[in-house]
Structure formats: C-alpha cells, structure tokens
DNA sequence: TGAACATATGAGCAGTTGCTCATACGTTAC
DNA sequence: GTAACGTATGAGCAACTGCTCATATGTTCA
C-alpha cells in the first residue's frame, strides 16, 4: 500500500513536522532489536523461566520440575533465551545448568512492574483488560 | 502432560530446592501482566509508534504519515497501546492526538538497549542472531 | 439535516508461535 | 564398545498476530 507524506487534508496536519520527525526516528535495526528482545520477554513461560533463574542457577530438568513443564518445552525456550543472551549455560557432566546472563533483565522486570502498578493505582481500573487478551491466553 | 516433582533421577537434582523455589516464584497474574506488556512492546510497529510519540504528541494521521503505515494499521495498534496505558488519546474536534502515557516506557527502552549493547561489545558476535528471527521477519 | 473528514473497529487471511512427540546428541559408567 | 541418562532439536499442529479491506462512529461545517 502506498502512503503519501500527508495522509489527511486537515490544516492541522503538520507536514513539516512529519518530515522532521522521520529524520529523528530510531534506526530500523535498533527498533527491530528492541522488538525482538521484548518479543522474547513477552511470553509467560519465558518470564517464569527468568524469574526462576533469578533465584540462582538451575539445571534443565529442575527448571522443568519447578515450572511443571516438559523438558522439551523448557529446552526450546532456553534456546531462545540463549539466543538473546538472557541466560547462559554451564555444562557439568551431562547436566547443563542455566543462569541469568545479565543484570538488566531483572531491572527491566522491575521497571515494567512499576509501570503496571502505577497504572492500577493512579488511574483506576477502567477497562484495564490489557488489550491483547490479558486473560484467556493459556491453552 | 503429567510432570512429576522430579523429572530426572540424577542425585544432583535438588528436590527440596525445587519445592522451595515453587513457593518463591512470582504470582501467575504478575507473570501474565509482565508478559502481556512485553508482548505489546515486542512488535516493531508498536516500538516505532512509541518512539515517534516520545518526541511529542501526534494525531493518528500524522503518525501514519511519519511511519508510512495505513491509518487503519496505526489505529489498531494504538488500541493495543491504549489498552496497556502506554499511550493516551486527547480529542480535539475530529482529530485525536496521542501521547506517551508514562515515563517508564522510555526508561525500559533505554535499559533494554543497554542490555543489547553490552552483549555486542562484551561478548563478541558469536551467533548473535537473536534467536526468534532477528532478520527476515518483515513481510 | 447531510456531506466531509478523522478515527475506530470487525472480518478474514497469511505468517508466526509454543507446544508435543519422536529422535538425535553428548557425557558417564560399566 | 554399549547402555543409561540429561539435554537439544526437527516436524507438525492448533492458536494467535498484524495487516488490509470494508464499514461504522463521532465531529464539524454549510
């Protein structure tokens, strides 16, 4: 679909500003990287894995036991988390222990929770159903 | 699928720890909320929208023009962002201006970029393809 | 009131995701 | 070597996502 510089013909539409803004936008690769990272964090199972690992390193099968997930499911998810260097493996014999690879993640979790909590207290719960199906996404 | 307390039968597997950890885990609703929020942030289009709005409020059609997206696409995404209170609408006649609803988001972006950058510098680029298809996801 | 316009939303489709199942890989013990 | 075991991974399927198209809603102005 073709989208011209000016989409609507209101006077208020600020064409100069539109063009200036385009130059000020974050680079596409950076945007993609941000989105990829958030995408990986945007799954309850992976959040739970990171949460569990925040208490210390765990082998795959203990992780599966803690979260009541299959070994395969955990392993698949760890692969993704490894890919973004959110977790780090350490082999000891046939057991592989995983730990958080980075302090930032927990800081990001904290900050995000702050956002959510500020929401609920400061603004009341009008239609706070979290858009994307905050409920009913588990299978 | 049934998943017992202990998945594997190695001696190293720490059953007591598994049980203790279960009690220490973050509450399911909190996990879901975190995941929902990250899920919304985990899309390039929405990241771009938030990035654009970080420079100041914009009406829907200017936003569409800046990002070269259809009005419909932008509106659908704004709906999601509104749902999680990441953006806030302000009506002025028939024009609706959107702005960031929260300072936290930009802080989260910054922190996440720090994580990514630390990756690339400190750890070299061995297999840094970001798992989930960092490239080739645009259509 | 009705035309024009900015925005919102429902339906539908192609692409993606997270799981399970089956199986391969890597290490240890015999 | 081979058996056992912890982990990793490919295929495949059901559910979900983000877009477009068509259309509804809400506001302004004549």
Note the topology.
Two copies of one chain form a homodimer.
Chain A: H1 15-24, H2 28-41, H3 44-53, E1 58-59, H4 60-67, H5 71-83, E2 87-92, E3 95-100, H6 104-123
Antiparallel strand pairs in A: 1-3, 2-3
Helix pairs in contact in A: 4-5
Chain A binds a DNA duplex (30 and 30 nucleotides) through residues 1, 7-10, 43, 45, 59-61, 69-79, 91, 93-96, 132-133, 137, 139.
Order of helices and strands of chain A: HHHEHHEEH
Largest interface: A-B, 85 and 84 residues
What name goes with the CATH superfamily of the domain at 28-118 in chain A?
Winged helix-like DNA-binding domain superfamily/Winged helix DNA-binding domain
The secondary structure category of chain A is mainly alpha
How is the largest sheet of chain A built, in terms of strand order? 1-3-2
CATH class of the domain at 28-118 in chain A: Mainly Alpha
Low-confidence stretches of chain A: 124-139
